[in-house]
Amino acid sequence: MGRMTITVDEQLVQEAKEILGVSTKAEAIRVVLQEFLRRKKLANVLEHQGKVKIDLDHESLQAHRDEE
Fold this sequence. Notes:
68 residues; 3 helices
């Protein structure tokens, strides 16, 4: 894990620590970044919802899995 110096709003970091129940600034920032990335990835997946046609039933999906 790399070290860096950044300027961050102290009130935001303190609020994040309290809401997340963590004790360090580093942990609060790590958790916030992880959650941000998770939500962005989820939004990207949901953006494609209904745009991809997959015509699989349970049996054909299981057969495909068995091939691997």
